[in-house]
Design a protein that fits this description.
Helix content is 39%, strand content 17%. By secondary structure, the chain is α/β, with parallel strands linked by helices.
Length: 213
């Protein structure tokens, strides 16, 4: 539930909130003291508020898509516009983003297309772990289905997905394991076979002795 500590955990994993803890990515111990270190370790983070934290809405689609991976399209500190265009067009087609062209400002796009642009930014850096905080919030049904399809494809390719959602049907339909937060603590972890709406809600409300089924 909102305020339970789930977003705080995501920010910690991504290096936005310093913490004294051990973290491992693919069995390798990493120190994540900043987002740049998290990105270098293969971690990407799509925040809940895409307009405030997920996009620079005044910038173009192409600029937003390549912002996290400028090193891939730059040489000696100079941006290669041709590479930027090729990369942006690739993800525009792959994610079926509806816009006049890649120079369209992000603020001119619908909510669903803005979210796809935000996702494209992180796909471009080819992460090993993707933290998705409410990735389908405020998007239309069609875009939600396409985002779910993309998440499944990424998981099938071996990308670890941490999906944060307050929508129980989304959690039950997408997740292999469900970690439920209550009062800044993980109250329980349920495998898909044991995860039910009633069991999840019981843990989310602090009823640790709930019976699942």
């Amino acid at each position: 539930m909102i305020g339970s500590g789930r977003t705080e955990l995501a920010r910690t994993i991504f290096g936005l909130t310093p913490v004294d803890a051990e973290m491992f990515v693919e069995g390798r111990k990493v120190r994540l003291r900043s987002p740049s270190e998290a990105i270098a370790a293969g971690i990407a983070y799509l925040p809940e508020d895409r307009r405030r934290h997920g996009l620079v809405i005044e910038m173009s689609m192409a600029q937003n898509m390549t912002l996290a991976g400028l090193n891939k399209i730059s040489r000696f500190g100079l941006l290669d516009r041709k590479k930027e265009t090729l990369l942006a067009n690739h993800y525009r087609e792959r994610l079926r983003i509806k816009s006049p062209d890649i120079t369209t400002a992000a603020c001119k796009l619908s909510g669903g297309n803005q979210q796809k642009v935000a996702l494209a930014r992180w796909l471009a850096v080819q992460p090993r772990v993707m933290i998705l905080d409410e990735p389908t919030q405020g998007v239309d049904v069609g875009s939600k289905s396409e985002i779910h399809e993309l998440i499944v494809q990424l998981a099938e390719k071996g990308v670890a997905i941490i999906l944060i959602s307050s929508e129980l049907p989304e959690i039950l339909g997408m997740c292999d394991r469900v970690a439920v937060f209550y009062n800044k603590t993980i109250a329980g972890v349920l495998p898909r076979s044991e995860a039910t709406q009633s069991g999840i809600m019981a843990l989310a409300l602090g009823h640790s002795n709930a019976v699942y089924g």
